[in-house]
Amino acid sequence: MDSSLIKRLRDMSGAGLMDCKKALEENNEDIDKAIDYLREKGISKAAKKADRIAAEGLSTVLIENNNAAVVEVNCETDFVAKNEKFVNLVNKIAKLIVDNDVTTMEDAMKLKTEEGTLNDTLINITATIGEKISFRRFARLTKTDSQNFGSYIHMGGKISVLTLLDGANESVAKDVSMHSAAMRPLYITKEDVPSSEIEKESNILKEQAINEGKPMEIAEKMVAGRMNKYYKEICLEEQDFVKDSDMTVGNFVKSQNGKIVNMIRFEVGEGIEKKEENFVEEVMNQIKDI
Fold first, then answer.
1. CATH number, domain containing residue 172
2. How confident is the model at residue 130, as a pLDDT?
3. What is the pLDDT of residues 8-26, one digit of tens each?
4. pLDDT for position 275
5. Does the structure show a pLDDT above 90 at 290?
């Protein structure tokens, strides 16, 4: 068999050398049929990996004019997260989201790519790289000309933050993003905290005060003060600004003639239960799939 044909198929598909050779042999050296064969094989390989846990990966922010996107793409190991093909995939997905007005993951997976759809691209790269690759989530924001985006990417993409401000400037928005990366706010304002969560926390704090021997009327007064401390922990505007602890983030932005409209913070793998495996077991699991 012509080795240049194998090389061409390998370059086109990203599949392994022996897989390409077999694909060409099975399809009478017809390169188009061989590509279809590899895709079908890739789908099979991807299906085997569907129940694996992908908690590593990368997040990123892309801002283009008045549109911006934050995305998180997961893989199984930190080694793959540093792979050039994986990094390129993350950037490609961010570009797709910025360029297309999509709001749901279902619509995002149908976006057109060179491989067909984004879903097809993910199936193909799962087969090529050999790990489960998962596009976990995204957020897309659009601003007006009087608003400003500011982004911050920490540890090469382990944490990505996008902030949208009314007024102020890009530098202020970036400062808020840096603060959010470090302090992990769950909400922007006190008003954003669900009433069920407030009620639950209030009851816990009240019980704590009663258990400390405080009378009910004193306990209820103590709850108000402790709730303010609770808001300072979870609400962006209430947190002490990391660059100047004498003011809150909300007051800092206000002092710069701005107002926080939105803040999106993605930390790779947060909320995913990671499977603990030792190195020997991991290698053996890889061998089983070969």
1. 3.30.479.20
2. 83
3. 777 666 677 787 888 899 9
4. 54
5. no
**Cα gap 138→156, rounded to integer Å:** 18
Short-list 146, 184, 164, CA closest to 70: 164
Query: For the segment 31-81, what is each residue's pLDDT rounded down to a tens digit?
Result: 878 877 776 666 445 555 566 767 899 999 999 999 999 999 999 999 999
Q: According to the model, what pLDDT value does residue 82 have?
A: 93
* Residues 27 and 147 grouped into a single domain: no
Q: Is residue 26 part of a domain?
A: yes
User: Hey, what are 89's tokens?
Assistant: 């995939």
**The predicted structure's pLDDT at residue 128:** 85
Q: Are residues 16 and 157 both part of a single domain? A: no
The span from the CA of 11 to the CA of 111, in Å, is 24
* Token code pair at residue 73: 């793409």
Domain annotation covers residue 204 = no
For residue 276, CA distances in Å to 46, 64, 77, 113, 225 come to 22, 39, 12, 35, 41
Do 79 and 166 lie in a common domain? yes
Domain that holds residue 69: 56-187+263-288
Do 17 and 61 fall within a single domain?
Answer: no
| Residue 16 CB coordination number (10 Å) | 14
* DSSP three-state, residue 179: helix
Question: How many whole angstroms separate alpha carbon 217 and alpha carbon 202?
Answer: 14
